[in-house]
């Protein structure tokens, strides 16, 4: 589903990704772990197409598409979802309005019929319920005044409504207490654990992986994947730290 | 009203397009609205003159004891579009303004208000939002004058401008002249650009650049017209504002964004292949 080959990317002329390669197949969940500053979030942003992140070499194919040739909104319409480490507050735009515009923009991009207000509300309510999010929060401005945990939950509600092919979740576990972690973990499994979908989980810690069991674990350090393995690698990292494993 | 053509030395004309002014000078006398004690009036002003026109509209409002005036202004048309409101507040009266200036090209748009709080306990609240593209200039000049005995005056001004291009200009000038000692006069002014983080967030959810900008700008103008009591009228003004925003966005999209919009349908394979 996703094939990253020898990817180099820089911000403000500083190279952050230095030849990263990774292949993700449908049905797989990959965890990417690594020390601070390794380039984990940069990888997410480069795949999402954030302005300011310049790809200097390498390629990324998403299905049959050249991902890097697409604008960010086209990547979303093609089925890529980027879960933000720090979801952005948008005053004056209600969650419902935002989600409906998102979903319908993507549907238009795929030549599908937009959902009516009623159809959409039904879908949004079901997703909010599934993630134990207060219905009232659907009416509030996007992420404004939400706690860290509520913002992450809201990201998962968005993911549930948008129903992407590939989710790249950047530290979705940060800022969550134990209960919220379980709810979010269950959400990821429910929405994305399917034979035709895939997930890249970017995380610092093992604890999210207790809820969302990865098929593969990769260590990202110095802008490259330095080690790959199965779930046991995450436990080894937790025990011995990055210094030993990445060395 | 002075018959002589104004100059830049006149504070109220400092940022105006005086050539355009000269072409229509002298202008008609101000529309006088004298609001009897204890009553209310509201006015909705949509200034959407043709792009090559010069539209100058002056209002003089006298609020008698306990009277209220609510003005909603959409200032969007003309080579020069200028709306001035001069308000005199007697005891316990209230003036409310919700205004938006939306301009592009080489337009000059202005809202000039003067609040004369001449007796105690009167209040005023002004909210002005501007969105400017092209080489447009949008100016809000808001003078609040509180007379010596006009105690307990409460006057507030909130002025925000959003620039869509580096060549647009916003002027925001609250001017306070306070002779009483027990008053509240709050004023705030900001000039900014669309939040790049918010735009990327919206894009990452599939919303194209032009739609994302429109969504953020609608939110920015937000509640300015919410106070229009008549539903049909409010819908009319909001639709006019929306139309103005879309026209501006259309002409201010960068080349790259146009290309992005054009290639919105990546050639070839469908979802099934992923």
Describe the structure.
The complex is a heterodimer of chains A (247) and B (274). Chain A is of the alpha/beta class and 247 residues long. Chain A has one domain (2-246): 3-Layer(aba) Sandwich (Rossmann fold). Helix content of chain A is 38%, strand content 29%. Chain A has eight helices and twelve strands. In chain A, the strands form three sheets. Chain A has a six-stranded mixed beta sheet, with helices on both faces. A four-stranded antiparallel beta sheet of chain A has the order 2-1-4-5. Chain A is globular and about 50 Å long. The model of chain A has no long low-confidence stretch (mean pLDDT 91). The N and C termini of chain B lie far apart (71 Å). Chain B has a domain at 11-194. By secondary structure, chain B is an alpha/beta fold. In chain B, helix 2 packs across helix 3 and helix 3 packs across helix 4 (231-252). In chain B, the strands form two sheets. A six-stranded parallel beta sheet of chain B has the order 1-3-5-7-9-11, covered by helices on one side. In chain B, strands 2-4-6-8-10-12 form a six-stranded parallel beta sheet, with helices on one face. Residues 259-274 of chain B have low confidence and may be disordered. Chain B has helices at 18-24, 196-204, 209-221, 231-252, 255-262; strands at residues 31-35, 40-47, 54-63, 68-75, 80-89, 94-103, 108-117, 123-132, 137-146, 154-163, 169-178, 184-192. Classes of the chains: A alpha/beta (247), B alpha/beta (274). At the A-B interface, helix 2, strand 7 and helix 3 of A face helix 2 and helix 3 of B. Chain A: Belongs to the ABC transporter superfamily. Ycf16 family. Chain A: It holds the Pfam family ABC_tran. Chain A: Residues 2-247 form the ABC transporter domain. Chain A: GO terms for molecular function: ATP binding. Chain A: This is ABC transporter ATP-binding protein. Chain B: Residues 248-274 are annotated as: Disordered.
């Amino acid at each position: 589903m996703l094939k990253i080959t020898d990817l180099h990317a820089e911000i403000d002329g500083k190279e952050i990704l230095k030849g990263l390669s990774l292949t993700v197949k449908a049905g797989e969940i990959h965890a990417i772990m690594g020390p601070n500053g390794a380039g984990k979030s940069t990888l997410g942003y480069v795949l999402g197409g954030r302005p300011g992140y310049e790809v200097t070499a390498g390629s990324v194919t998403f299905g049959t598409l050249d991902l890097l040739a697409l604008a960010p909104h086209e990547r979303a319409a093609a089925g890529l979802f980027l879960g933000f480490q720090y979801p952005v507050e948008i005053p004056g735009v209600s969650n419902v309005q935002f989600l409906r515009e998102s979903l319908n923009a993507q549907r238009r991009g795929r030549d599908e019929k937009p959902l009516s207000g009623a159809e959409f509300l039904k879908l949004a309510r079901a997703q909010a319920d599934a993630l134990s999010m207060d219905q009232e929060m659907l009416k509030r401005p996007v992420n404004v005044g939400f706690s860290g945990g509520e913002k992450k939950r809201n990201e998962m509600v968005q993911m549930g409504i948008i129903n992407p092919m590939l989710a790249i979740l950047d530290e979705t576990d940060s800022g969550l207490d134990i209960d919220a972690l379980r709810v979010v973990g269950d959400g990821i499994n429910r929405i994305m654990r399917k034979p035709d979908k895939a997930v890249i989980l970017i995380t610092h810690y093992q604890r999210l992986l207790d809820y969302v069991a990865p098929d593969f674990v990769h260590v990202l350090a110095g802008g490259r994947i330095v080690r790959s393995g199965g779930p046991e690698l995450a436990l080894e990292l937790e025990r011995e730290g990055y210094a030993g494993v990445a060395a | 009203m002075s018959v002589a053509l104004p100059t830049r030395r006149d504070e109220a004309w400092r940022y105006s397009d005086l050539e355009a002014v000269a072409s229509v000078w002298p202008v008609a006398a101000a529309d006088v609205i004298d609001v009897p004690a204890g009553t209310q009036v509201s006015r909705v002003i949509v200034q959407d003159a043709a792009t090559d026109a010069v539209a100058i509209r002056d209002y003089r409002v006298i609020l008698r004891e306990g009277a209220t005036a609510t003005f909603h202004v959409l200032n969007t048309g003309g080579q020069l579009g200028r709306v001035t409101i001069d308000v005199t507040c007697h005891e316990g009266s209230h003036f409310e303004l919700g205004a938006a200036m939306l301009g592009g090209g080489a337009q000059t748009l202005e809202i000039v208000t003067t609040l004369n709080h001449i007796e105690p306990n009167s209040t005023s609240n002004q909210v002005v939002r501007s969105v400017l593209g092209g080489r447009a200039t949008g100016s809000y000049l808001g003078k609040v004058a509180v007379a010596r005995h006009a105690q307990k005056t409460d006057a507030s001004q909130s002025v925000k401008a959003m620039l869509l291009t580096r060549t647009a200009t916003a002027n925001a000038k609250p001017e306070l002249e306070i002779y009483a000692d027990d008053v509240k006069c709050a004023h705030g002014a900001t000039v900014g650009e669309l939040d790049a983080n918010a735009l990327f967030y919206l894009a990452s959810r599939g919303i194209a650049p032009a739609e994302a900008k429109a969504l953020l700008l609608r939110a920015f103008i937000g509640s300015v017209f919410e106070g229009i009591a008549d539903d049909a009228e409010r819908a009319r003004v909001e639709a006019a504002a929306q139309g103005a925003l879309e026209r501006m966005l259309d002409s201010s999209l960068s080349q790259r964004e146009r290309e992005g919009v054009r290639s919105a349908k990546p050639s070839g394979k469908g979802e099934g292949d992923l």
